[in-house]
UniProtKB/TrEMBL annotation, chain A:
Taxonomic lineage from the root: Archaea, Methanobacteriati, Methanobacteriota, Stenosarchaea group, Halobacteria
Keywords noted in UniProt: Cell inner membrane, Cell membrane, Membrane, Transmembrane, Transmembrane helix, Transport
Name of protein: Thiamine transport system permease protein
Gene3D superfamilies: MetI-like
Subcellular location: Cell inner membrane; Cell membrane
Any one GO CC term of the record: plasma membrane
InterPro entries assigned: MetI-like, MetI-like_sf
Primary residence: membrane
Species the sequence originates in: Haloarchaeobius iranensis
Membrane-spanning intervals of the chain: 20-43, 113-135, 147-168, 250-277, 362-384, 423-445, 457-481, 487-509, 544-564, 597-618
Protein family: Belongs to the binding-protein-dependent transport system permease family.
Membrane topology: Multi-pass membrane protein
ABC transmembrane type-1 domain residues: 109-315, 419-618
UniProtKB/TrEMBL annotation, chain B:
Catalyzed reactions: tungstate(in) + ATP + H2O = tungstate(out) + ADP + phosphate + H(+)
Keyword Ribosomal protein on entry: no
GO cellular component, one term: ATP-binding cassette (ABC) transporter complex
Subcellular location: Cell membrane
Annotated protein name in UniProt: Molybdate/tungstate import ATP-binding protein WtpC
Residue stretches making up the ABC transporter domain: 4-232
Signal peptide region: none
Length: 628, 340
């Protein structure tokens, strides 16, 4: 037993002031780096002489709200609206080719929601079988695969988009493979970009769905299933009556998050769909950068944020309602490969069982193929494109990177600074986001009706678009704020980027840490206090130690988010004037992408490797923390 | 060491009153038990003493020292919870030694070893708490609470998670240690049998109030209220009318000794309490006829449920029991009847 040198009240007083200071600093950082810049953009939306007019004209413009425009224009003309609905249904005809419906104008917001819904459905459809396999079968690498489900989520969108180009584009990997079997080139991205966008969204979010559903599946109390079976339920019926209700909350959580993320999607749609598939976020970006219609963009951003905040609030309410579930042991996992079927029993019965299992395994094999095409395909294609040119295998693109590093001009984007910046910003982001997330977790662990509101407020980075945030930072902190007395408050370069990354990352720390803090038995804290520990000391000795795994997971997320962040980094990483460059790896990929596809893919591969290696390192460190 | 005083302590959560106007005096070195059904306020009382709850009104004193508003860490209380509440990330020795970080002693390791020995867990110091059985974990929890030599020991249902045999063994051990150390102890339990077995004095609580305080014998033999009579031990309660020398229940008159204490007028309402073990077939007085309905063999005795004109009467006997449906006549001595 180790003896602590510092005991007693003076140390506790220091700790208490530290805790207060951390809370104040966190609130300050959030105010300065999150609420102020976002507020600045939003103020623009209300900045006209008649501020509400911009909202009214947006809501009543069919371009934005489709058929709902008329509803917003004349909200009380119920009869007219009912007639419209009636005539639409009158136009529905059921023919041999299925149900024909009259065209419905969705508008920009409608389309954004529409593609988000489709993406959500696709993600659930692809994610759930994965959860089934991970929770019900044992095979080599199951645990690794389970932890790998986190990886797509943190990959930079720009990289994934280029991966999908490399895989499914006209000159992509898929067509190369198809050509081998004699099928002509498919123009998938060109003819059906929405399909590819949805696939790319599934690439991001299906693993997320799989992850939360696997966790829920593994904690289903399996004795309840056995009880149902003993009461006469078939296997299928027991699944429907017992397992499914316990999975539903997790599936809903995954679906809601997927909807949120795809509603705010940006780089994927911009890269694959362009303006033809514009979502609200892409349109905001377009208005800002091409048309310079700042007020219109701000109005759109406010509406967009209102919708996603609403979804976030619903999600948090739902999540807190689901919190008190009893964790069980989960289903027994059967081996996926090979099966000792020497058990006694009639040959017929056994063959039926084996037959059914084989059908199931066949389905799993088919699913695996889909997963490989969807997940390994784009990343593999990217790695391959980095290693090939028109004629065959080559290291030319990597040579280009080395050469650029050795002899590039100062205005050119070099690979090494990009790697260095990404790592430095990543570490700094962890250092800032971890205490921030911890403070917010503590604040949101309490009970009461304000908790959901407080949580929604602190989860704003989930719900606010990266573009709005980046623009706000640029206009607010980088251009500077005038202070009384002729001073100007300016945050630029690396500091601004780290601040932006930390603000984007800390909600993930909160999501990992808050549940663990909430799960600590209050009697442990009470025991510590009755033994003489102050509240702060009990927090450090008990709660913090028990939330260590959540902190490690949160740190991993924060690091990965920083490495992959693109939306606001690309706006802030303006290295023309400064003497130290601040671009990161994703920004470098994007800059190469515009001119040279091969080197961009090579750079993307470097990004992939660095991300993967850091994850392994964090995982190892985390494992040590969990054991120690 | 200290005596403990609660004066008019009330606690409410919103509209729900958890404790109302509780007065208690616990003597120095006393083993004092709060007993009652769940939701009666016994745990809230204990948590108020520990400082985990802040009473709305009332005063709390340890040996004359005002404790209201003093944070838990400055009260010098040791707390043992039902679920042990051991720190899962610390070894057994680290758990026991945790309080010594705030109450420094010359040789903490020797103190931990001494406590391990006190709870009969020598050599368990390096184990993880999760490796231990429930009973062992509870001993560690007790040792941890005692390590800083608290003024008051608070035990919140410490045996409830253990099986019956272990429970009895551990409660004897807790009582032995408490007597050896002479530490003022407040014990919370819903198990009235346990309360009677270990305590110097018992407070029976109901609906946030203290119904009766007394020695185990007093609350058993002289219950102050209908609730205490029915909660502490088994009892037969008959509502009737007060008559001269006793009580009349549906035309049957029972004579009861020591009526002055009740102090009620003839003709008023009265409740007669008779313990099942005081009903006897060979009693000379207060005889009434019943029908045997069901019997449970308990080993040293048999508990018999009988019907008396639609009332269920519990009778406890160590003799042979008539068959189900048989008629039986029971009676009791006047000194065993009690009127409420």
């Amino acid at each position: 037993m180790s003896r602590r040198e510092w005991t007693g009240l003076s140390a506790d007083r220091t700790l208490r002031s530290l805790a207060v200071a951390a809370t104040v600093v966190t609130a300050g950082v959030l105010l300065l780096v999150l609420y102020f810049p976002v507020g600045l953009v939003f103020a623009e939306a209300f900045g006209g002489s008649r501020p509400l007019d911009s909202f009214a004209s947006t809501l009543t413009d069919p371009f934005y709200t489709g058929v709902l425009a008329e509803l917003f224009a004349r909200p009380f003309a119920v009869g007219v609206h009912l007639d419209n609905v009636g005539s639409w249904f009158a136009g529905v005809s059921v023919g041999p080719g299925g149900v024909d419906t009259p065209p419905l104008s969705k508008g920009l917001f409608g389309f954004t929601a529409y593609q988000a819904v489709l993406s959500t459905l696709a993600s659930v459809a692809i994610g759930l079988p994965g959860a089934y396999v991970l929770a019900n079968y044992e095979f080599r690498g199951r645990r690794t695969l389970r932890s790998l489900t986190i990886v797509p989520f943190v990959l930079p969108g720009i990289m994934v988009a280029s991966g999908f180009y490399a895989a499914f584009g006209q000159a992509g990997l898929l067509n190369d493979v198809l050509a081998l079997v004699g099928v002509g080139p498919q123009r998938l991205i060109e003819t059906n970009p929405l399909f590819v966008v949805i696939l790319a969204h599934a690439f991001y979010n299906a693993p997320l769905v799989a992850r939360v559903a696997t966790a829920a599946w593994e904690s289903v109390d399996y004795r309840a299933v056995e009880t149902a079976r003993s009461l006469g339920a078939t296997r299928r019926r027991a699944f429907r009556d017992v397992v499914l209700p316990q999975l539903t909350p997790a599936i809903a959580t995954g679906a809601l998050l997927t909807f949120l993320f795809t509603f705010l999607t940006f780089p994927i749609v911009l890269a694959i769909g362009g303006l033809e598939l514009a979502t609200v976020e892409v349109w905001v970006y377009y208005q800002l950068t091409e048309v310079l219609a700042f007020e219109e963009a701000a109005t759109l951003a406010v509406l967009e944020t209102a919708i996603s905040l609403g979804v976030t609030y619903a999600y948090l309410r739902y999540e807190s309602a689901q919190r008190a579930a009893n964790p069980g042991e989960g289903p027994p996992r059967e081996p996926l490969f090979g099966r000792a079927s020497d058990a006694a029993g009639s040959w017929l019965a056994r063959s039926r069982v084996v037959g059914a299992l084989d059908a199931r395994r066949l389905a799993i094999a088919g699913y695996t193929l889909v997963v490989v095409v969807l997940f390994v395909g784009p990343l593999g294609a990217m790695v391959l494109e980095g290693l090939t040119d028109g004629s065959g295998l080559t290291l030319r693109h990597y040579e280009f990177l080395l050469q650029r590093q050795a002899s590039g001009a100062s205005f050119q984007t070099k690979p090494l600074p990009a790697i260095r910046n990404s790592l430095v910003f990543g570490v700094a982001t962890v250092a800032v986001a971890l205490p921030m997330g911890l403070v917010v977790s503590v604040a949101s662990t309490g009970e009461g009706r304000w908790r959901s509101l407080l949580e929604t407020a602190t989860m704003l980075p989930f719900a606010v678009s990266g573009i709005v945030f980046g623009i706000g930072l640029l206009r607010g902190l980088v251009f500077g704020i005038s202070l009384p007395g002729g001073w100007r408050f300016v945050i630029t370069g690396g500091v601004a980027i780290v601040a932006a990354h930390a603000v984007a990352a800390y909600p993930f720390v909160v999501r990992n840490v808050a549940p663990q803090l909430a799960g600590v038995d209050p009697r442990l804290v009470e025991s510590a206090r009755s033994l003489g520990a102050s509240r702060v000391r009990a927090f450090l000795d008990v709660e913090l130690r028990l939330a260590a795994t959540g902190l490690v997971a949160g740190a991993a997320f924060a690091f990965a988010i920083s490495i992959g962040e693109f939306d606001s980094t690309v706006i802030l990483a303006s290295d023309v004037a400064g003497d130290t460059v601040t671009y990161t790896m994703p920004v470098a990929v994007e800059r190469y992408l515009g001119r040279r596809f091969g080197p961009a893919m090579a750079m993307g591969t470097v990004l992939l490797v660095v991300t993967a290696v850091s994850f392994v390192v964090v995982d190892r460190l985390g494992g040590r923390v969990e054991r120690g | 060491m200290a005596e403990l005083t609660l004066e008019g302590v009330s606690v409410s959560y919103g509209d729900a009153v958890a404790l109302s106007d509780v007065h208690l005096d616990v003597a120095d070195g006393e083993f004092f038990t709060l007993v009652g059904p769940s939701g009666c306020g016994k745990t809230t009382t204990l948590r108020s003493i520990a400082g985990f709850e802040t009473p709305d009104t009332g005063e709390l004193r340890f040996g004359g020292r005002e404790m209201t508003g003093v944070p838990p860490e400055e009260r010098d209380v040791g707390v043992v919870f039902q679920n042990y509440a051991l720190f899962p990330h610390m070894s057994v020795a680290e758990n026991i030694g945790y309080g010594l970080r705030f109450h420094p002693v010359d040789d903490p390791e020797a103190r931990v070893a001494e406590l391990l020995s006190l709870v009969d867990l020598d050599g368990f110091g390096d184990r993880d708490p999760t490796e231990l059985s429930g009973g062992q974990q509870q001993r560690v929890s007790l040792a941890r609470a005692l390590a800083p030599e608290p003024d008051v020991l608070l035990l919140d249902e410490p045996m409830s998670a253990l099986d019956a045999r272990l429970r009895e063994e551990l409660r004897r051990e807790v009582r032995r240690i408490q007597t050896d150390l002479g530490i003022t102890t407040v014990y919370v339990t819903h198990d009235q049998e346990e309360a009677l077995a270990v305590s110097d004095r018992v407070a029976v609580m109901h609906d946030g109030r203290v119904e009766q305080v007394g020695t185990p014998r007093e609350v058993y033999h002289e219950p102050a209220s209908r609730f205490v009579a029915s909660f502490v031990g088994e009892n037969n309660l008959f509502d009737g009318e007060r008559v001269d020398g006793g009580v009349r229940v549906d035309g049957t008159t029972f004579t009861v000794d020591g009526l002055d204490a009740a102090g009620r007028d003839t003709g008023g309402h009265a409740t007669l309490c008779v313990r099942p073990e005081h009903l006897r077939r060979d009693a000379a007085e207060n005889r009434f006829a019943l029908t045997v309905e069901q019997s449970e063999f308990l080993g040293e005795a048999t508990r018999v449920h009988c019907d008396w004109d639609g009332r269920t009467v519990v009778w406890r006997t160590d003799r042979r029991v008539p068959e189900r449906g048989a008629a039986v006549t029971l009676g009791f001595a006047p000194e065993h009847g009690r009127l409420l």
